Amino acid sequence: MTKKLQGSSLSWQETCTSFMLFSRALALSVREAYKPSKTSDRKPEPKEIIEIPSSDEEDNNEDVQLQSDVQRAIEASKAQSASSSRTYSPQDSISPTISPPAISAPSMLVRSSNAFPFDRAQLERERLERQKRLRPDLVEAQSKPQLDNEDEETDENVNMNGRSAKRQRLSHNSSTAYHSNVPSSSTRPTTGKAPRATTSGTQSKEPADAYFWNGELRQTANKYVEPSKDTRPLFRLTDILAPRDEISFAIISAYCVDFPWMYSFFNPSTPVIIVAQDSQGNETMKEVLPNWIKTTPFLRGGRGCMHMKIFYKTGRLRVVVSTANLLPIDWRDIENSVWVQDVPLRPRPIPHESKANDFPAAWTRILHSLNVAPALITMVKNGHTDLPISRLEDLRRKWDFSKVKIHLVPSLAGKHEGWPKVLQSGHVALMKAVRDSGARTPKGKELVLECQGSSIGTYSTQWVNEFYCSARGDSAEEWLDQPKSRRTKLPYPPIKILFPSDKTVKESALGEQGGGTMFCRRSQWEGAKFPRTLFHDSRSKSGGVLMHSKMIIATFRDTGPSSKGKAPQSDSETEPESDDEVVEVDAQGREEDKVIGWAYVGSHNFTPSAWGTLSGSGFNPILNNTNFELGIVFPLRSAEELERVACWERPPRKYVLGKDEPWMQSESAYFAEE
């Protein structure tokens, strides 16, 4: 081994040593090149690195790994230089066949020192494909996401993260194709560069670059939908985040996030700000993946909300409000609701108006409250100087929201005092949205609510009537001016609480294991004053799938002798027909002003934590919200539109007391502690 190489003064051993030193230097150079640019006089931002797991078999030989890293760096550099001319392929937006296990925010892992920093998500997908072929047993064991309760009303979240992998045993095999769907009579997407009217009625597959200039509400595609009932247009996450090569920047938020899985939907070079939750409820900001910043608002004991804002290189802005978490299970195994609207860029920016109170102004307030503004500044300091916005106020200045007809309804965690602040959050914001939609309950009419959700609250007649007052569009001032002694003794109003019965969950496509996102406690159900007579079974129109959708359908009906004061108290399996008779209201004498009610879709469950509780007086109201939530409200103008929007079978079947009980995850043997 000491023999001199021909034409060289170096020995073989010296040559090998020199090559290894050169390889290490090259790897360090490439690693340094992909670090965000930082000024020398600025302290580095804290980093919370998401580790994408690797198998022990692939890390045994450090020298082999180093050489492999060097080769991948060279290939990555070549790919990066050619990316600008790359043609988009539909395959780019297909989710991985096998997904890494979900990582909740409190349990982030630190990347090992020899982990290569460039595009680990792609490397992980390749490794998992090999592992799938060689060790399918390991794939099955690793593919078990964990979820938390989205509402503090139950205690499930206290020990959810501590449970074993048995918590969710749903398969991550996403190879089963969704069935094609026939578009409904709602607006279909367009593919042009500018908004135009659209029609429907023919079966077609959505193009990857479908635009929704007039807004679109759909359910999510589901692996277990009954083919005979698969007749509506649906959303997949790849439909929403497409074409991914055209995305220049994104702001996303969810209650629960699988970071490696979500990372795979974006190009590694795309800057992303993701709003999540800190395990201690503190306001934080960390770099968690290459070009990704995780920001958390102050949220003591509360929960987060679901929304996205996606900026495209063409200037288009896509706004998304969803009931789904950013987890594979929410986009494949259970049903959710998603609203999407594309917004065009203005020809030129308009001046900033600090007192504006329209849709984009509401978005700006929400993003400020979620601690997005500091993350945006950090993103720019990290070298992303070409972002489509430099400050949140640019949303209203640069984009034309004139085609957006829905109304935002946020809940902002915290204490809000005084009418200007109270009107911007919770069920009081719902009251304002109902009024602004022209859907306030007319005099002489009664409002019937159907409230679909995945988590049950602790209810009192006072809170339910407080919410009902706002849902009617009536002033909260009138409610607060009533004596408290009277408010606490009111009967329950005509509200139907939709929640899957124990039988419905067990007979669903996934059985008990599919009930991991539904929460109700025995102590709630058996409470002395709990409104058991308001409960109705939640059954999806798609068949034997469970719904994670949060939706409220509100309709008007004539006030009759049988509908005064409170909801029917019978234990029969079906409601009286009069309960479902919808009354059309023509407030202004114009066809476009005719309404039969309104609909809400968003992250709010029907709970006090989500919608808030009122106190104080009509002169100085106080609203307390535990959670951050976000949803939309729009008027319903016909019975046909109502049936298109509602995602459950109507009329819902009423619980038979003594026979029906709600699904209680904590009592399921499947979710029992090991």
Automatic annotation (TrEMBL):
Cellular compartments annotated: Nucleus
Keyword Cytoplasm attributed: no
Sequence segments annotated as region (Disordered): 33-101, 132-211, 557-583
Matches recorded under Gene3D superfamilies: Endonuclease Chain A
Extent of Acidic residues compositional bias: 572-583
Family assignment from sequence similarity: Belongs to the tyrosyl-DNA phosphodiesterase family.
Descriptive protein name: Phospholipase D/nuclease
